[in-house]
């Protein structure tokens, strides 16, 4: 059961970060990919929901960090959280996803410098 629910907060946090950056970084990314149209301007409609996405990012990454950095004494012997190699891989994935989420959440500040 643990293997199926381990990545849920991490994946959810990245999806919420995409939602938080959709209004600001979304149009820039689409234009850089060569995708244009009048509908691209409609992505700014997500701006009022941005605080909710940011709260979801903080909550989900907090949950993922708690699950990742809890004491190994709480892990059952033979489970994935008791294996140091698995823990190291999960920590690397967690911090890479956290950096991506930070970039997306702060996109409304740095996208102005690029555009």
From TrEMBL:
Alphabetic keyword roster: Cell inner membrane, Cell membrane, Membrane, Mercuric resistance, Mercury, Metal-binding, Transmembrane, Transmembrane helix, Transport
Subcellular location: Cell inner membrane
Primary location: membrane
Membrane topology, record value: Multi-pass membrane protein
Residue intervals passing through the bilayer: 12-36, 48-66, 92-112
Gene Ontology cellular component annotations, sorted alphabetically: plasma membrane
Entries under InterPro entries matching the protein: Transprt_MerT
Signal peptide feature range: none
GO molecular function: mercury ion transmembrane transporter activity; metal ion binding
Protein function: Involved in mercury resistance. Probably transfers a mercuric ion from the periplasmic Hg(2+)-binding protein MerP to the cytoplasmic mercuric reductase MerA.
Family: Belongs to the MerT family.
Protein name: Mercuric transport protein MerT
Organism: Photobacterium frigidiphilum
């Amino acid at each position: 059961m643990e293997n199926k629910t381990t990545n849920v907060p991490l994946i959810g946090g990245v999806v919420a970060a995409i939602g938080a950056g959709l209004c600001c970084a979304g149009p820039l990314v689409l234009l850089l990919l060569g995708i244009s149209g009048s509908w691209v301007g409609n992505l700014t409609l997500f701006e009022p929901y941005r605080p909710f996405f940011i709260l979801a990012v903080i909550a989900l990454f907090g949950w993922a960090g708690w699950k990742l950095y809890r004491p190994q004494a709480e892990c059952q012997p033979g489970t994935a959280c008791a294996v140091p190699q698995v823990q190291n891989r999960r920590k690397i994935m967690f911090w890479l996803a956290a950096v991506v989420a930070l970039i997306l959440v702060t996109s409304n500040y740095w996208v102005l410098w690029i555009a």
